[in-house]
Design a protein that fits this description.
The structure is a single chain. By secondary structure, the chain is α+β, with helices and mostly antiparallel strands. It is built from two helices and two strands, in the order αβαβ.
């Protein structure tokens, strides 16, 4: 995954990769650091209970796959 400074775009790519991997019967998918954002705007930092993390958890549950999110 090649993240950009657009969190929404990055999540769209992330979601596609998770769904493709789940369809291929993967059980664990590991992502690198900075998967959700690459840039210098640290003001967008979020706590672990933020909506973006809830989206990651929901996608993992829906896809029945374990996710390793490199930055968390």
């Amino acid at each position: 995954m090649n993240s950009l400074n657009d969190s929404s775009f990055n999540f769209t790519i992330f979601s596609r990769l998770v769904k493709e991997s789940a369809a291929a019967v993967a059980e664990l998918l590991c992502f690198p650091e900075n998967l959700s954002y690459v840039g210098s705007n640290w003001a967008i930092s979020e706590p672990l209970n933020a909506p973006s993390m809830k989206n990651y958890r929901s996608l993992a549950k829906e896809s029945n796959i374990w996710l390793s999110l490199g930055e968390f």
